[in-house]
């Protein structure tokens, strides 16, 4: 059966966020980790989200991986491919949102590509091309302190232009709220001015429904889960999606085993969630400095967990405050610190799985990528939502047997996230 909607996600938490949105809006969806091997038995689905770990790699590597995934999706029938980026537009002046979007657009022969990170369910809105996180402009939000890509400019037309060859324009809220024809007219006008990508304003889900209708008739778009919602609803309205009786609850039959979490996200939301979790379950704070200089800290963490996970869920976290992250990065460099900590958290997670953990929560996109890759999980089925943008995932084709995972985007979830996640995965 042909895929109705293809998507390439630039990180694994973002992929599960999008897969969750598509599922909730009527598309049977599978999340694959990279391009799956030909031998992997995938279910009959309407949408496939290919998870890549390309948000913070060199632009050329991101373009190559995304182009290959795009080819795979289109060969399986996808006429539209959504490049799923972060709702906080995580990127740098080198990329990778601009370079990947341009490469996908050039391959598909696309004119002006619609780009919007708006995701109202998590408070991300775009007005006059400026991104708001809740009530704050992006550059005044906690994203200004992100360990890998601190965001210092809320004007996305400017941000995207700095990392792109195509000229960037704006589809403003006046056009979006006037409906599909007004958006198309605006895109035609931009094309006539030689513009090749357009940031689209969107505040409410209705705006994203309009943008989804317009985007679906083009070969490629770039956005967060909000645009996914618009595309899914447009597809459902078009009558192409077969009706099915199964529900997301079918994806989370109990798997047994023990439960644990690892956290590498340093977002304000994750730091608060860890503080709250520490009141009701064991939480180990790793010493990042020790992680960078040797492996003793990893062994100590595994032994700490060994004594506790048979009694109930436990959490191991590298997460630290912006000041501590800054200190570590100034001593060891940004990339070296990030990679070493990702490696350490993934080794710890894999060891916990070897010891019988089958329900695993991971906080942070890069961290989730490192953990899922080390566990060599090929794909996920999407279960019920723990918090907006975070579903329970059930592994498909894993060598560890059936497992339930939750890959939490750094900024997502309320303060009780960990307790809620473990309860839903029980
Ligand atoms: N104490 C620390 N000091 C410096 N860097 C850290 C520390 N703890 C974790 N890191 C690194 O910070 C980065 C956090 O990125 P990650 O994508 O996992 O979380 P996030 O950005 O909050 O999540 P998302 O991308 O889903 O929003 C990782 O590279 C991780 O290894
Ligand atoms: O869009 C978001 O904010 C998330 O899905 C994400 O990509 C964080 O890594």
Automatic annotation (TrEMBL):
Residues 5-229 form the Four-carbon acid sugar kinase N-terminal domain. GO terms for molecular function: ATP binding; kinase activity. The keyword ATP-binding applies. It is an enzyme of class 2 (transferase). Residues 261-418 form the Four-carbon acid sugar kinase nucleotide binding domain. Pfam families: NBD_C (PF17042), SBD_N (PF07005). Keywords: ATP-binding, Carbohydrate metabolism, Kinase, Nucleotide-binding, Transferase. The keyword Repeat does not apply. Its EC number is 2.7.1.217. It catalyses: 3-dehydro-L-erythronate + ATP = 3-dehydro-4-O-phospho-L-erythronate + ADP + H(+); 3-dehydro-D-erythronate + ATP = 3-dehydro-4-O-phospho-D-erythronate + ADP + H(+). Belongs to the four-carbon acid sugar kinase family. NCBIfam families: OxoTetrKin. Catalyzes the ATP-dependent phosphorylation of 3-oxo-tetronate to 3-oxo-tetronate 4-phosphate. This is 3-oxo-tetronate kinase.
